[in-house]
Amino acid sequence: MKLKILTLAMALAMPALTMQAVAADDFDLTDMVPARPNTTVANAEQATVKGDAVIADNAELAIAVAHKALIDDDEDGVKMIQVGSGTGILSIGSVSYTTYDNFNATLLSKRGAYNKAYMIAKKQLIENMKGVEHQCANLVDSTLDVIDTGAESVANTKETMTETCKESVSGSLAGFVTFDVYDDVNEKIVRVSLISTPKTRSQIREKHGAVAVTSDPNSIFKQVIGDIKDGVLPPVGAKVLTHSETGEVIVMGYGSAIIRQNKNKSIARKLKSAAKSQSQTRARSALLATIQGEKVYWQGGFDEKQVEGSEQFDYEDPSLQDPQQVQILEQQRDTFVNQLKMSDQYSTLAKGKLPAGVSVKSFSSSDGYWQYSVAVYAPSLEATAKQAAKEMQSAGKSMNAADNSGRKINAVGGINDAAANPQAASGKVSSKEEI
Predict the structure, then answer these.
(1) Would you tell me the crossing angle of helices 379-404 and 217-230 to the nearest 10 degrees?
(2) pLDDT reported for residue 330
(3) Residue with more model confidence, 241 or 260
(4) DSSP 3-state helix, strand, coil percentages of the chain (rounded to 5)?
(5) Cα dist. 411→111, 167, 284 in Å?
(6) What is the mean pLDDT of residues 126-138?
(7) What SS3 state is found at 254?
(8) Which of 154-168, 356-370, 410-424 has the highest mean pLDDT?
(9) Of the listed ranges 45-49, 52-56, 155-159, 164-168, the one predicted with least confidence
C-alpha cells in the first residue's frame, strides 16, 4: 500500500492520529506527478482559472493546473485551489544559485538557495492567510530658483522624490505539506512548493486517544525507508505519513548538509562526519518545528530616491546663495539620478525539547556530495521509549533499595601476600636508538 502524505502540521503535540479527515477523497496527493517546465496537464480544460484561483471538481487536476500556471509564469507566488471540500493554497518559492570553480562553494550556494526558497514559500502562505503589516511614506520636493537682472534671466529647477516602504509578516503555520522541490541545473534555479489543504489542516484539530507501546518498531522504519525510495528526499522540510497497516501517524523531519570535498583523505572523513552532524541537527529542528510549532518572520521594504533638474547657473558660494554672486554656465546642465535600495529578511525560530523515542537515520547521496538525515517520530515509539525509561528507573530504585539494606563497607585490612597477581604488560618500550 502506498503511503499517504497527511500533513506537515505544526502542532503543540503529536499523539496518535485517527484516519478521519475532511472529504477524504479530496486532496489526496499520493499519486500526483508534480509539474515540470514544458509539460502538459491532461484534461486541463476541465479546470477554470479565475485570477489567482483554480476551480475544478477534481482536486488533483486543480492542484496540477495551479502548479503548472505558477511554473509557466516563472514567478513566486500563491494560487488558490477551490474544490468541493474547500479551499487549498499552493505556494512556490524559487531562488537562483551560483556555480564556482570550488565545487564545495557550488554545493553550498545550491543548498542555501533551497533554504531561502523554502522560507519564501512559507512567508507567502502567512501573507496570504494573515495579511501584511504595511507602511509607506512618499515625499516630493520641487524647487525653482530664478534670477533676473536688467540684462538677462537664468533659472535652476530641481525635483527630489523619496519613497520609503516597509512591510512585515509574522505568525505560525500549521497544516501544510512540502509538495515538490526542483533543481533546474540549466537555469541554476531551485524551487520549493508548499501546499495547505482542508485535509492537511484538519489533522491538527483532531482529538486522539492513548497509544499502545509498539512491539515491532522496525515496521515503522520500513515504512519510512519505503517512502523515501518511492519519492524525493528533500534538502529541507518535513512531512507526515501513515503506517499502511496500523494507520499510525509517522512524522519525518528532513535535514541536509554538503559533504565538502578534500584531497586529503583524513580531512575528507572529518568533513563527512561534520556533514552528518549538521544534517542530523537540521532534521531534528525540522521535526521539532513540525510537532511543536515554528514561528516565521519576514520584514522587507525599499527606499527609492530620485533627483531631476536643470541648472543654468552656479552660486560662487553655495552656502550664501547670493544672487549677485553667480556663475552663468556656458551650457545648461541637466541631471537625473535614481537610487533604489531593497531589503528582505527572513527568519524562523524552532525551540523546545523533542519527545522521547525520536530516531535519526542518515543517508549519503549516490554521488557522495550530499548528506541527508531523517528524524522520525511516531507516538508508539515515544510510548516504548517512556516505558523503557520507567523500567530502568524502577530497576535503579530497586538497586538503591538493596544497597540501603546492606552493610557498610569495610575499610580495614585486606592485605594478602598470597593473593592472585597475574603479570601485566612488561617489556621494552623505547629502544636504545630512540633514547
Answers:
(1) 150
(2) 93
(3) 260
(4) 25, 35, 40
(5) 63, 75, 50
(6) 89
(7) strand
(8) 154-168
(9) 45-49
The secondary structure of 147-196 as a DSSP string is EE-SS-EEEEEEEEEEEEEEEEEEEE--SEEEEEEEEETTTTEEEEEEEE
Average pLDDT value over all residues in the chain = 76
Per-residue cell: 5: 502524505
The answer to whether 323 touches 147, Cβ cutoff 8 Å, is yes
CB 184 within 8 A of CB 117: no
Quick one: which of 301, 258, 321, 251 has its CA closest to 7?
Answer: 251
What letter represents residue 186's amino acid? N
The Cα–Cα gap between 68 and 73 comes to 8
Q: Is the predicted pLDDT of residue 370 greater than 80, yes or no?
A: yes
Q: Over the stretch 16-56, which tens digit does the pLDDT of each residue have?
A: 222 222 233 334 444 444 556 666 777 777 777 777 788 87
Q: Yes or no: say if 194 and 121 are a contact pair by the CB < 8 Å rule.
A: yes
Do residues 277 and 255 touch, judged by C-beta distance below 8 A? no
**Which amino acid type is present at position 13?**
A
The number of beta carbons lying within 10 Å of the beta carbon of residue 150 is: 4
Residues 6+ apart with CB under 8 A from 326: 147, 154, 313, 314, 315, 316
3-class DSSP assignment, residue 210: coil
Nearest to 298 by CA among 97, 117, 119: 119
In angstroms, the CA 314 to CA 104 distance is 56
Among the listed ranges 65-74, 366-375, 395-404, 423-432, which one has the minimum average pLDDT value? 423-432
